[in-house]
C-alpha cells in the first residue's frame, strides 16, 4: 500500500480509466450542508488560481483505492474503498460547470467532459470515469450525459448538481461580476487546488480490513451500513445478481433504520437472545466467520442470509405497517399493538408470522397468539408491573419457545412462567379497583385500554376511534369543588379523610372515561356532567350519566364492571405454569423511594395513592420491613415525623438530623418544608424517568380538527375563564415576549385542561426541540407555569445538572418563587400570579433569554 498527495486532476486526468463505487458502499448522501462547505472552500481557492501561493491549497481529505477484479492492462479500473462522497461531489460540480459554459464556450465544455467525466471511446458503463453504485448509476449517468429527466429530479445527486448550477448563476449575476471568479477559475480550483491524499492498495491487500478500519467507529456509518458493506465485500462473484434480485427490493421497501431493526431481529430469531442492536455489525460478522472458513462457503452463506432477510422483511413490514396484513383479524391485532407502541414484542410477532407463512399454523392460531401478547402487555400495565425487563422477556421468545406445542399455546405457556409476572384475574380485578391507572404507562396505552373497554359494549353504532379526538376524562375531577367534597365526605370511612379518599380513587379506572368534550366537562358538579355525558356516542358515558350520584361506591361498582370486561377481553396466564410472587406493589414503593432526589420527602398518603394502597398499610409495611431505602423520608401529610417512628434494623439515629442531612428544611413549627414534598404526580414522573419511560406531552398533540376551536383559542378561553385579568394580561405578554426571543408556542390537546408550551427548535416537531415551561390555566386553583426539569434532563445542554441548577436559581430570584433543589429531576410549578409583578416578569424574560442562548450554544460546547 502506498500513499501520496495529489489533486483531483492528477487522479482522474490522462488515459482512459474508471473509478468504481462498489456495491458495499452506501448511496450518495451529501446534503446542502456539506455542499455549502465545499463550495466555500472552492471559492476561497479560486481567488488564488494563477498566483504563486501554492502552500495555501486546501486539504479535502483522503481517497482510498484498490485494484478492481475487472481491471486490465488497457483499461485500469479502481475500487473506491473510501472517498466516494468527495469524488462524486467534485464530478457533479464539474458537470455543472460544463453545462454552465456550454453555450458560450463549447470547446471548454467539451474539454472538461473528456478530461474529467467520460472515457470518450468507451461504451456502456465504461463510458464514465466515475461509476457509482447501482442505485445511483441512472441518476449520475443522466447528469453526466446531460439527458436529465423529471424522473430523477428529487434525487440527492440531482440536488447536488442543481446546487452547483444555482451557485454558478448567482456568481454570474452578481452586482460586481468582474470581482467574482469565472467558471473556469472555479474549475481550476476544483481540479488543482483541492489537495487529496490518495492511498492505493496493491492486489492481494485485504480491502475489507482497510474499509473496516476506516469506518467501524460507529461515527460515520450506521450498523446497517456497516453490515451491508461487509456483506457485499464478501460477495465478489455473486454480488451483482444478489444485489439486483434480493437487496434492492429489500432496501427500497424499508428505511435504513427499519432495515437495521430487521437485521437485529434476524439475529434474535436465529437464537442470539442477548445481542444488543448497537452490536449488530460485530455479532453478525462473527457469526459468518465462525461458521465457515472457505471463501466460497462464506459467499454461499451470505447469499443465503440475504435471501432469508428478504423473505422475513415481508413479515416485518406487516408488523410496522399493519395495513399490509391481508387477514382482517390479524390486521386488527397488529394495529392495536402498533398503537400500543409495542416494539419490544417484535421478536415474538416475527415468530408468529413466520409460522403462519410456513403453514405451521393458521390465521386463527396466529390471532390467538397475538391476543396472548396483547393481554400480557395490558394486564401488566393495569397492574403496574415495572417494564424494565420487557425487552429481555420478548427477546428470549425465539430461543425459549416450547417446541412440543403450537406457537399460540407455546407463547401462552412461556409468558405464564413464574418469572414473567403476567397478572391473573384476581390481581387484575384488585388493581382495577385500587391502582391509580392514570399515573402509570404511556398516555396512548391508557387511551387504548379505555377504547377496548368501550368496544366491549358492542354498541350498534361503534365509534370511529381513528378519527375521533378523544381524551381521558376524570369523572370525579382532579381538583374537586365544594359539591364534590361534600359528596365524598359522606363516603369516608373511619380514619380516612376526604382528601385521602379523593387521592385514592381519582386516578383509578372506575373514575376514568373517554370524551371529546373534556374542556366542557372541566370540574363541573356531577349533575352538570351528567347532562353532557348523556349526549355522548360512547356507551360507557351514557351508563355513567344514568347513575344518580358519583361517589366512592359508584366508582368501585363501575370498576367491577370494567374488571369483568377486562377478564373476558384479555386472556389470563396459565395456572399450571406457576404463580408469580404477589409483592409487586411493595417493590414499586421500594423503587420510587430509592429514587427520591436529595432534598425531597413524601407523605404516607401520596405513596399509598401512587401504589394503590392505603396510608395505614404503607405505614405498617415501612415500620416492619428492613432495608427500604429512604423509608424515614415518608412523613405525615403535615410534614411531621410519625408518632412512634422507629428504625427497622440498625438504628439510624435522630430522624430529624438525618432528614436535615438529606437537604430537607424545617419550618418554625417543626414541619418539613411543603415545597420539598413530592406529590403522587411527582412520584409517578420520578419513576417513569428512572425507568426511561418519561413521556413528553408536547410531542403527543395530534392535528387540529377542522371546524373546532383552535388549541390556541381554547387555551386563551380557559385562561380568561379561570384566572384574574392581571394574570391573563401577564401571560399574554409572556407569550408575546417568548416569540420575540425566537421561540414559538405549542398548544397541547390536554386531557384535563389545555396547556401552552414555550418551545425552541423546529416548529411543528416539538419532540426535536426543547421547552422550559408549560403553562396551565387555573382550573379552580390558579394557573401555574410548570418548569419541566424532567424533560430538560434529556436535552443538551441541560442534561448537565449544574445547568438545571443555574436555571432553578434564576427562577428563585423571582419574588414568591422558591423551588427546592430536590425537584431538579421533576416538574415543579410556579404560580402564574407571580407574573403580575413587573420586576418578576423582567427577571423571567432575562432567564428565558439565558435559556435560549444556552440551547443555541449546545453544539459549540
Can you walk through the features of this model?
With 861 residues, the protein is α/β, with parallel strands linked by helices. Helices cover 49% and strands 8% of the residues. The protein is built from 37 helices and 15 strands. The strands form 4 sheets. Strands 1-6-3-4-2-5 form a 6-stranded mixed beta sheet, sandwiched between helices. Strands 11-12-13-14-15 form a 5-stranded antiparallel beta sheet. Strands 7-8 form a two-stranded antiparallel ribbon. A hairpin with a 7-residue loop joins β13 and β14 (784-787). α10 (239-253) packs parallel to α13 (295-320), α25 (526-534) crosses α26 and α29 packs across α32. The protein is globular and about 100 Å long. It starts with a strand and ends in a 5-residue tail after the last helix.
Short description:
The chain is of the alpha/beta class and 861 residues long. The protein is built from 37 helices and 15 strands.
Gyration radius, rounded: 33 Å
The strand line-up of the biggest sheet is: 1-6-3-4-2-5
Distance between the termini: 39 Å
Helical fraction equals 40-55%
Helix count, DSSP H or I runs of 4 or more residues: 37
- Main β sheet profile: 6 strands, mixed
Strand content: 5-15%
Helix- and strand-based class?
alpha/beta
Number of strands: 15
Indicate the low-confidence ranges by residue numbers: 175-179, 292-296, 578-584, 690-703
What would you call the shape?
A: globular
What is the overall pLDDT average? 84
